[in-house]
Design goal:
36% of the residues lie in helices and 21% in strands. It is of the alpha+beta class. Among the domains are: 105 residues, Ubiquitin-like (UB roll); 119 residues, L,D-transpeptidase catalytic domain-like; 83 residues, no CATH class. It is elongated. The chain starts with a helix and ends with a helix.
Length: 551
């Protein structure tokens, strides 16, 4: 009995529910679903006519208020200013209802249904945009620019600077938002609430941004110290300027900035080719030696590469700069306290080792009268060679100790010489080398290393007359040339002229050695007589020939 009653009750309930469902289907065939809107206008359970009336009523005297939350201000845009038109009779609302399936109405009891149409409410986009541009909030003097999150160097390291949500209006986005609001006949909107501001595109939690900062700080962790006359540590601000970001976000190095920094270091330490000062070992006077090939010279390209490598490793490093040329020490005197000093004027050499005089010796340098003068300047021993053969255009000379310092000029033994020093170099000097006694060259070879400075200079001295020995030799050669002229003939003219030129080129000292100058005078007189006699004979012969021709 109870089961029959239960079954009957369920049947009645089913019939009621079926009736409700069928009734709903009928109803929602000409009414919009519950919880539905058309362009934001409430259409829940309403007919087409009711919705159109609602839209038409809402459109009368329509305007929209734009709330500027930041400035606590409200701006208004009126329908007529943007050519807003409401066409409820266009059939758009009917079309929306016809597309609605009444059988599905139970599914829309709770769920919201939002219909959109572009034809019920329309307006001129360009005019909406124009009205927006006129608002005080656009390009305002107190506008705060929106900024993406980014990194900045804060003095010691890089840090992520958070994004800034500014008050810079995104005109295009706001135009879309305003039109959407007007199409649904909404009466207000908020700049902040509806996100009309330009929005950041990179945020502080961006993984790529934070990875860049970590990589940058790894590079910044390196402390690079250069050992110069005083240690120089690369300051962090300059270090930061060496790193830049490519367009693709990858980190790279600014070689131009690094090169500029290395150049400043080079200007500080480079001494290559610059004059040197020294106290003469002879008289302790200060001597300035012209620049040569000795001194520090930074290899800038190699140093730039080294700095980049140091930054990539991110480790502390203390090191020297990379050089093309090296010197003994940094500071005022880069040649240090181990060097060879050569005084051309004194024809003397001094060898210093660790500040102590090891030896000094007379030498013979290049002959300046034959264009072979030893070049003054600050040089260094290029290499050392034992049992070498020195070769030139017209000589090949074996030496035991060879230490070149400037091209083919060098220090070496000269066992063929019987004496050194004095003025020998002026008449019988070398081809440019510094000739040394054997023991001097041996001591040099055993004491100095490759790279040892060789400081060559000449001091000012009172002008001297020509070397008497040289002048006497020239006088003797001249006298011999005079003696062989006799007897004087017309063919002797060239020899007589050359002898006279040689005599005139002698100094007064040299002329005093010529004891047969009177003979040269007589020869010149005799030559003049012969030339006159020959001239007369020539004239006679010419007259005789002319007379014979006329007869």
């Amino acid at each position: 009995m109870k089961s029959k009653k239960l079954l009957f009750g369920l049947l009645i309930a089913a019939m009621v529910l079926a009736g409700i469902y069928i009734g709903g289907c009928v109803y929602f065939s000409n009414h919009f679903y519950l919880n539905s809107t058309i362009n934001g206008v409430k259409s829940s359970g309403r007919s087409v006519e009711t919705v159109e009336e609602t839209i038409a009523e809402a459109a009368k005297g329509y305007s929209i208020d734009i709330i500027d939350e930041g400035r606590n201000a409200t701006y208004t845009i009126f329908a007529e200013d943007v050519d807003m038109v409401t066409d409820v009779g266009s059939g758009e609302v009917d079309d929306i209802l016809e597309a609605q399936t009444g059988f599905e109405w139970p599914a829309h009891i709770i769920a919201r249904t939002e219909y959109e149409t572009d034809h019920v409410v329309t307006m001129d986009r360009d005019k909406v945009k124009k009205e927006i541009k006129r608002l005080p909030c656009v390009d305002a003097s107190d506008e705060v620019k929106t900024e993406d999150a980014h990194y900045e160097f804060t003095g010691e390291k890089y840090e992520v600077i958070p994004e800034v949500f500014g008050t810079e209006i995104d005109v295009e986005a706001m135009t879309d938002i305003v039109m959407k609001k007007m199409e649904s006949l909404q009466r207000s909107m908020g700049l902040l609430a509806d996100q009309c501001y330009v929005q950041p595109t990179v945020f502080s939690d961006d993984p790529e941004l934070n990875a860049q900062v970590d990589e940058l700080n790894k590079m910044m962790a390196a402390t690079i110290t250069f050992t110069l006359d005083e240690n120089v540590t690369l300051d962090k601000a300059t270090q930061a300027s060496f790193i830049k970001t490519k367009k693709n976000g990858k980190l790279t190095f600014d070689r131009e900035a690094i090169t500029e920094y290395v150049s400043t270091l080079a200007k500080r330490v480079n001494t290559f080719g610059q004059p040197k000062t020294i106290k003469s070992s002879l008289d302790k006077k200060k001597i300035t030696i012209p620049g040569g090939t000795y001194g520090w010279k930074v290899d800038e390209e190699k140093e730039v590469d080294a700095i980049i490598s140091d930054l990539e490793k991110g480790e502390d490093v203390t090191r020297e700069l990379h050089y093309t040329y090296y010197a003994n020490s940094h500071g005022k005197h880069d040649y240090g306290d181990t060097y060879v000093e050569v005084n051309i004027t004194a024809q003397h050499l001094w060898l210093y080792k660790d500040g102590k005089l090891v030896m000094d010796s007379d030498v013979v340098t290049g002959n300046p009268n034959k264009g072979n003068g030893t070049h003054v300047g600050a040089y260094f021993v290029a290499y050392k060679e034992k049992d070498a053969v020195l070769r030139g255009d017209n000589y090949a000379t074996p030496v035991t100790y060879w230490m070149p310092f400037h091209g083919n000029e060098g220090l070496h033994d000269a066992t063929w010489r019987g004496s050194f020093g004095g003025k020998i170099y002026r008449s019988n000097g070398s081809h440019g080398c510094v000739n040394c006694p054997f023991e001097t060259a041996k001591t040099l070879f055993e004491t100095i290393d490759e790279g040892c400075p060789v400081l060559v200079y000449a001091t000012e001295e009172e002008p001297e007359g020509p070397d008497p020995a040289v002048e006497k030799q020239k006088a003797e050669e001249l006298m011999a040339s005079i003696d062989i002229i006799a007897p004087v003939t017309l063919e002797s003219e060239t020899a007589i002229q050359l002898a006279r030129q040689a005599y005139n080129s002698l100094s007064d000292t040299g002329k005093s050695y010529v004891t047969n100058i009177a003979t040269l005078d007589e020869n010149e007189k005799e030559l003049e007589k012969l030339k006159k006699a020959a001239e007369k004979e020539s004239e006679k012969a010419a007259k005789k020939a002319e007379k014979k021709k006329n007869n």
